[in-house]
């Protein structure tokens, strides 16, 4: 399947892979597309390959993913319970650490208005998925939470900035975020723009000044990774293509995936790779973590698209059904709800396949977080 309406320059130069399995001659992106034909699945194969077998010895991984699983009866022996990874406890523990670090990092000082606006959105809650992924990736290679924390906080600062700007009337024009009025509804558009700008700048300052216990070379690599993941080849690339696609008829899957691999997946990838670098991963290990992160990044957006048409605004904490109202192209719109769910399952399997060679206990948080992204309900 090739891109339709390929006259715009960016479509021709950024095409990655078409869905017949052939490589585009014009591909030159730094992002790794998780659906290259060398991977063990494809949405469009009539007889997809079987799920890769991942051996984790006797160590089992459990995550409370939905209300239904929370209420499910548990039939486990004491020894099995000792081996189960408790994602909820992990997210609470690490999330509390991240929240405290964020609150300490961005404090109220002059000028008060800008710092109030920054703190309003930054401390409004959220799943803290990106910081948790950064910390988990660092710990996978024996690194300490304290080493990863400045980078983890920086990813959340930038993610929050992107939400503040995305909610503006000139972008998605949204009134609700994390169950609260969006930043510009409280502080005005001008302050919301400036607070987002301030958060973006401070994220890099915080990594540079607060990272301790690793070499300056690693810190510099982390800063470079983060900058690339959000710049004109990362998050901004996805955002501008998304903006330019409004009103475009017959948007295809490659087009849609370019947007999501950049707008959503790039920062998730950056979060994981930054943690891996800080933890001391070698080049091959970083490559595996990069592929893992790109899969869960695309997975995150596929699930978002599904939730947008299956959940209420109250359940989501943000405006539901807005993509449908705006007639935006989504996975359910292009391939249907059931195929979107199948695609999400395949992305999750491929993500976890990348972790098969690592210590199962150290990889447990990343595996459980991938499952959480796949089966979350908000």
TrEMBL record:
Gene3D superfamilies tied to this protein: Farnesyl Diphosphate Synthase (1.10.600.10)
Pathway terms, separated by semicolons: Isoprenoid biosynthesis
GO MF entries: metal ion binding; transferase activity
A Gene Ontology BP annotation from the UniProt entry: isoprenoid biosynthetic process
Keyword tags: Isoprene biosynthesis, Magnesium, Metal-binding, Transferase
Cofactor or coenzyme needed: Mg(2+)
Alphabetized CDD domains for the sequence: Trans_IPPS_HT
GO cellular component, one term: cytoplasm
Record PANTHER family: FARNESYL DIPHOSPHATE SYNTHASE, OS07G0580900 PROTEIN
Family classification: Belongs to the FPP/GGPP synthase family.
Protein name: Geranylgeranyl diphosphate synthase
Organism, as annotated: Cinchona calisaya
């Amino acid at each position: 399947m090739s891109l339709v309406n390929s006259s715009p320059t960016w479509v021709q130069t950024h095409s990655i892979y078409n869905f017949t399995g052939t490589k585009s001659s014009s591909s030159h992106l730094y992002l790794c597309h998780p659906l290259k034909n060398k991977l063990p699945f494809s949405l469009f194969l009539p007889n997809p390959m079987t799920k890769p077998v991942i051996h984790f010895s006797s160590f089992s991984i459990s995550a409370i993913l939905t209300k239904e699983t929370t209420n499910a009866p548990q039939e486990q022996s004491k020894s099995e319970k000792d081996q189960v990874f408790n994602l909820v406890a992990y997210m609470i523990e690490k999330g509390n650490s991240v929240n405290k670090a964020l609150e300490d990092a961005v404090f109220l000082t002059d000028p008060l208005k800008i710092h109030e606006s920054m703190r309003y959105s930054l401390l409004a809650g959220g799943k803290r998925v990106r910081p948790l992924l950064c910390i988990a990736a660092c710990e996978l290679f024996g690194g300490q939470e304290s080493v990863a924390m400045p980078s983890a906080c920086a990813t959340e600062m930038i993610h929050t900035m992107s939400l503040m700007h995305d909610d503006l009337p000139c972008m998605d024009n949204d009134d609700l975020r994390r169950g609260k009025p969006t930043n510009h509804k409280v502080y005005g558009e001008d302050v919301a723009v400036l607070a987002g700008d301030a958060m973006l700048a401070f994220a890099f300052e915080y990594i540079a000044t607060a990272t301790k216990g690793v070499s300056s070379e690693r810190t510099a690599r982390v800063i470079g990774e983060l900058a690339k993941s959000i710049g004109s080849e990362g998050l901004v690339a996805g955002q501008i293509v998304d903006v330019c696609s409004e009103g475009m008829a017959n948007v295809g899957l490659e087009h849609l995936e370019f947007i999501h691999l950049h707008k959503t997946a790039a920062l998730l990838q950056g979060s994981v790779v930054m943690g891996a670098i800080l933890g001391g991963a070698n080049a091959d290990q970083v490559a595996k973590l990069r592929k893992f992160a790109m899969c869960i990044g695309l997975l995150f957006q596929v699930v978002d698209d599904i939730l947008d048409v299956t959940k209420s605004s109250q359940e989501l904490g943000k405006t539901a059904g807005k993509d449908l109202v705006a007639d935006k192209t989504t996975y359910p719109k292009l391939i249907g709800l059931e195929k979107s769910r199948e695609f999400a399952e395949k992305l999750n399997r491929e993500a976890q396949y990348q972790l098969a060679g690592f210590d199962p206990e150290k990889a447990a948080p990343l595996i459980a977080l991938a499952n959480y992204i796949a089966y979350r309900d908000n």
